[in-house]
Amino acid sequence: MREPLIFSINYTAYSKVMVTSEWLIRISNYNVLFAQISDSRFFVVNSNDHPYLSNEMNGIQLIDIRVESISGVFKPFFIRVNSQEMLDNLRDTLGRPIEISESLTLAQPLHDRFVVEFVKLVKSNPKYKCENKESLDPCLGCSSTTSEVKINKTCVDSLILAADEGERRCQSCSCRPMWCARCMGRIFASKQNQQTPEIWMAGRAPCPTCRATFCALDVCFLE
């Protein structure tokens, strides 16, 4: 019975990595390599940042992974992912650890660094009193964390706003809590000018559901 494909990495039209529930398959122009996941160990052996290999502001991070057989039935081979997020997705799909040498440091992507600072700021904001916290659903973004923040206007609008800023004053959101702080940070970052990350934290963004305008000072943890 043919196993369904659950993860893939495309390098070129004829070169790719495919993962099923039991196998990791490396296809190239010259050969096809099979690794049974239950008989494999995975090691990150190299990482290089290449800011000019992508149209995205962050560029890409090339991460090389060595695949070894525990029983020795196949020779080691290498696969490559182009971001830490893809590495995390691959790890989750394999259901096995991917070991990283202590001497090797993986650079944290710009958006991830922003999210860390965003969450720090949100922790210093006033809390939002939430009734029936136990009935909250998982975060709509990641589904792995219970919804934990609410958009509630706590900032003070500037006394001087440009004419085109009038409709962008921050507002309280009427939606129930549906996001975790990290996913809210990712949403906020995605709505900013990607060419000016140094001022993202001072920006505004629309609520993903009701479109109410908010800033980082309006994101409140629940209590």
TrEMBL record:
GO terms for biological process, alphabetical: protein ubiquitination
InterPro entries tied to this protein: TM129
Membrane topology summary: Multi-pass membrane protein
Any one of the GO CC terms: membrane
Keywords: Membrane, Transmembrane, Transmembrane helix
Main location: membrane
Molecular-function GO terms, alphabetical: ubiquitin protein ligase activity
Localization terms from the record: Membrane
Keyword Transmembrane helix attached: yes
A Pfam family it matches: Tmpp129
PANTHER family attached to this UniProt entry: E3 UBIQUITIN-PROTEIN LIGASE TM129
Name of the protein: E3 ubiquitin-protein ligase TM129
Species this chain originates from: Ditylenchus dipsaci
